[in-house]
User: Which sequence fits this backbone?
């Protein structure tokens, strides 16, 4: 009888929070993480060079794209530390300060990118759907102030994470940004919903509305001529890339993290489930990091000036690129005064100028 009781007791304790210790992740996570962030670093470094050195005149859309590229680039220093952490079996050897700095940079990057993508969607919505209206979203000076406000907000989020989260020790391992840090359970739970609702759900809803209206507006462009077909195709690709970034890169990370903090807080005995969710969360990190590689594609769809600058730069180093046809400009500029012409023709012309 005593042995039977001991047997069931061991089964029960095998899934308890005390035995739920962070496990080393598969080497593929380290490999893919390194590849994704390296490719993102190269593409964003090149994009920033194009913005600063090859595009002397910026439109309102270019202002937002540049700040998005900066947001993507600042996460690059984090990648080697994260790769080392996973390669050492989920052990952080770099000390408390660098752990806090990593958490802050990740927060600034992820939610800065989300907010700048949202501003891009709003600006394009205003410029295309409401092309005949005067709007502050068409002024570079206003957008520069708006970008400064976004940076202030995301830096405040990063500073809060820096102050509240730290390393902890479990056995012979030092943990950093781990769901198994029991002393941070309540902090992780609270921060998650602060980041989830205003940091992701609200911006995603706004972007979804803007791009739905934008796609509807562009669908009415006249496709009887080559210019209309080119604008329509490029606009659809741009909308698809934007929604792909939100749906593939940022949504899984926020959903899986929410599941993880709920399990840790309310069902800490579900150790095996928590370990699976933890692995899924690290995979979502890789997907989230892929936005650094997708955003430069967005710049090409969203700006003919950027595309021309890229083609010119590549030709200088020996790559032969096809010349970009005129009339496919997707930059957002101030709306000119409109004459009473056909609405379809006007929409096509304005989409060429604004998207």
Assistant:
């Amino acid at each position: 009888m005593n042995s039977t009781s001991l047997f069931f007791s061991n089964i029960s304790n095998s899934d308890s929070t005390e035995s739920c210790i962070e496990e080393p992740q598969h080497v593929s996570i380290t490999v893919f993480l390194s590849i994704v962030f390296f490719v993102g670093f190269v593409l964003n470094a090149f994009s920033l060079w194009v913005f600063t050195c090859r595009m002397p005149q910026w439109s309102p859309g270019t202002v937002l794209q540049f700040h998005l590229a900066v947001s993507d680039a600042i996460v690059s220093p984090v990648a080697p530390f994260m790769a080392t952490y996973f390669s050492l079996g989920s052990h952080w050897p770099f000390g408390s300060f660098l752990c806090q700095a990593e958490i802050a940079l990740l927060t600034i990057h992820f939610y800065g990118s989300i907010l700048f993508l949202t501003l891009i969607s709003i600006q394009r919505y205003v410029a295309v759907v409401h092309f005949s209206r005067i709007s502050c979203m068409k002024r570079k000076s206003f957008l520069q102030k708006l970008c400064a406000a976004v940076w202030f907000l995301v830096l405040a989020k990063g500073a809060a994470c820096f102050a509240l989260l730290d390393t902890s020790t479990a056995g012979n391992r030092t943990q950093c940004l781990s769901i198994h840090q029991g002393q941070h359970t309540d902090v992780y739970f609270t921060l998650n919903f602060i980041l989830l609702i205003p940091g992701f759900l609200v911006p995603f809803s706004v972007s979804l509305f803007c791009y739905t209206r934008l796609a509807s507006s562009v669908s009415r462009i006249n496709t009887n001529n080559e210019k209309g077909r080119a604008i329509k195709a490029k606009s659809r690709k741009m909308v698809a890339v934007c929604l792909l970034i939100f749906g593939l890169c940022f949504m899984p990370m926020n959903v899986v993290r929410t599941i993880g903090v709920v399990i840790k807080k309310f069902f800490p005995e579900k150790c095996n489930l928590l370990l699976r969710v933890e692995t899924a969360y690290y995979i979502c990190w890789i997907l989230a990091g892929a936005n650094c590689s997708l955003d430069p594609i967005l710049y090409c769809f969203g700006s003919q000036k950027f595309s021309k600058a890229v083609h010119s730069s590549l030709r200088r180093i020996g790559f032969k690129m096809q010349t970009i046809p005129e009339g496919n400009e997707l930059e957002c500029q101030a709306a000119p005064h409109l004459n009473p012409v056909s609405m379809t023709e006007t929409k096509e012309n304005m989409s060429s100028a604004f998207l």
In short: The beta strands are 168-170, 173-175. Confidence is low (pLDDT under 50) at residues 1-18, 321-355.
